[in-house]
């Protein structure tokens, strides 16, 4: 089966090729691999050489020779490598487009006059779409002005055994997620996502470094899950013969660091929650948490706004980001801060406070068709707020002052009874980050843990356990602090307008 492609016969997508056809093409390519190896006395040549005499990359050559005129020779020789993403073979001249990992492309021209009859015939026989090839020769431009390499020497750098999908047709979302390597080869946005994520992480670290924060690492395997209300993954350690939990949050360990004197501390790492997966949730996700001694939930909100705005500049050059669909979204200025209880009261047309009886909250929920079955009044307040208020938030907004009974690690509000000093940040209609004035009184913290333990005993899988080691650390004295947590994947969603499976390089799929 012929492998060399022309403009008139583009290679079909992987979905369009039947299993039999793929198997046939694979057999053809495997046979070429065998012939390549058998024909070569030099083990460094073959189908997979160890090293090649590369002197430049495709992006470097494109930048260096950007001013070269039409049908002009530079007089300079380079050796570079790339993946063949287009191939056209004629009698005495073959054309190939080589693509680098960042998506940059350059044309390779293999002519009878430059490489000779035997080498040209070998190119036609062995080189297929998807192969990585090394070419060396003079940098020129074609009669159409296309930057090219007039090849004097070439080698196959790595033989592709399976055919690439047609790069002119967009992959299905399912294939993009399951075969991210094909997505990266074929789609600029996929490559951009990886680069943007790296820029965001670098920006976060720069901002923290400039403010005197120290980055640490805390355990992912824990003997007790805590730091958030979430269902954990459970595993077993053979070495210790004990049940362990994959981390749902680094909070309790980072607070230990604050007790120990690391007064500005943060971590960027992986968390795992054994819960649902949708457009904004993934069972495995990247998380940022930070704690600032002698701060509170207002100073940590200021920090969070700065972190996100700095990340926007790193990605887009300004506070105005452009999403994948072309929408511009402004992250600049000072973001609104609204009260959860006051905004809910306005939405339902009656005063809702921390003293509103749970029976009345249930009635309001029933009237709105909201199904809530929970013993805590605060859970009804939060569900009602999400139903009535959340969808109306278009600009970045800090939602302040949450119910006490749903926030066991948060300091009670300094002036409003039954409320804690906590905010959630909403951007694009989803929760991006949360921040607290931290609860540092070990006596009150123990009382909160006891209440959580009662919920756990009653069957609540998300309730926290009583963590004696953490309480012991608090008993040595933790300074008043502000703390925050933010999903890195969700931050990329806010900056790019994409769903969570697009912002994670290799998301978990069934």
UniProtKB/TrEMBL annotation:
One annotated GO molecular function: ATP binding
| The keyword Signal is annotated on this UniProt entry | no
Quote the cofactor binding remark.
Binds 3 Mg(2+) ions per subunit.
Q: Does the keyword Coiled coil apply?
A: no
The top EC class, named as a word, is ligase
**HAMAP family in the record, alphabetically?**
Lys_tRNA_synth_class2 (MF_00252)
State what protein this is by name.
Lysine--tRNA ligase
């Amino acid at each position: 089966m012929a492998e060399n492609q022309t403009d008139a016969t583009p290679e079909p997508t992987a979905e369009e090729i039947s299993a039999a056809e793929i198997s046939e093409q694979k057999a053809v390519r495997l046979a070429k691999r065998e012939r390549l190896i058998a024909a070569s006395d030099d083990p460094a040549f073959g189908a997979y050489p160890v090293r090649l005499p590369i002197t430049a990359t495709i992006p470097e050559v494109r930048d260096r020779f950007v001013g070269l005129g039409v049908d002009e020779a530079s007089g300079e020789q380079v050796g570079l490598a790339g993946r063949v993403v287009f191939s056209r073979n004629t009698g005495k001249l073959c054309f190939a487009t080589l693509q680098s990992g960042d998506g940059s492309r350059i044309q390779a021209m293999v002519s009878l006059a430059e490489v000779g009859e035997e080498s040209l015939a070998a190119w036609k026989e062995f080189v297929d779409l998807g192969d990585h090839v090394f070419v060396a020769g003079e940098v020129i431009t074609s009669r159409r002005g296309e930057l090219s390499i007039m090849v004097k020497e070439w080698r196959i750098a790595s033989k592709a055994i399976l055919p690439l999908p047609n790069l002119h047709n967009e992959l299905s979302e399912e294939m993009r997620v399951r075969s991210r390597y094909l997505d990266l080869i074929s789609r600029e946005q996929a490559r951009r996502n990886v680069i943007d994520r790296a820029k965001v992480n670098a920006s976060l670290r720069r901002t923290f470094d400039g403010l005197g924060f120290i980055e640490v690492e805390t355990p992912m395997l824990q003997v007790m899950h805590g730091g958030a209300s979430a269902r954990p993954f459970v595993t077993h350690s053979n070495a210790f013969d004990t049940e362990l939990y994959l981390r749902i949050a680094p909070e309790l360990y980072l607070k230990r660091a604050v007790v120990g004197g690391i007064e500005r501390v943060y971590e960027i790492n992986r968390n795992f929650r054994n819960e649902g997966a949708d457009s904004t949730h993934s069972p495995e996700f990247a998380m940022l948490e930070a704690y600032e001694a002698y701060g509170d939930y207002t100073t940590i909100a200021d920090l969070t706004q700065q972190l996100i705005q700095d990340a926007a500049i790193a990605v887009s050059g300004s506070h105005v980001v452009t999403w994948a669909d072309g929408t511009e979204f402004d992250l600049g200025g000072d973001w609104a801060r609204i009260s959860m209880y006051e905004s809910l009261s306005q939405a339902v047309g009656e005063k809702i406070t921390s003293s509103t009886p749970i029976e009345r909250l249930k009635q309001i929920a029933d009237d709105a068709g909201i199904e809530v079955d929970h013993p805590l009044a605060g859970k009804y307040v939060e569900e009602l707020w999400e139903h009535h208020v959340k969808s109306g938030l278009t600009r970045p907004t800090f939602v302040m002052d949450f119910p006490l009974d749903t926030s066991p690690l948060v300091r009670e509000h300094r002036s409003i009874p039954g409320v804690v000093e906590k905010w959630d940040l909403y951007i694009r209609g989803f929760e991006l980050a949360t921040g607290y004035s931290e609860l540092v009184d070990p006596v009150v913290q123990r009382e909160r843990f006891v209440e959580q333990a009662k919920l756990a005993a009653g069957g609540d899988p998300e309730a926290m356990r009583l963590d004696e080691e953490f309480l012991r650390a608090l008993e040595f004295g933790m300074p008043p602090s502000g703390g925050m947590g933010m999903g890195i994947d969700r931050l990329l969603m806010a900056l790019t307008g994409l769903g969570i499976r697009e912002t994670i390089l290799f998301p978990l799929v069934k």
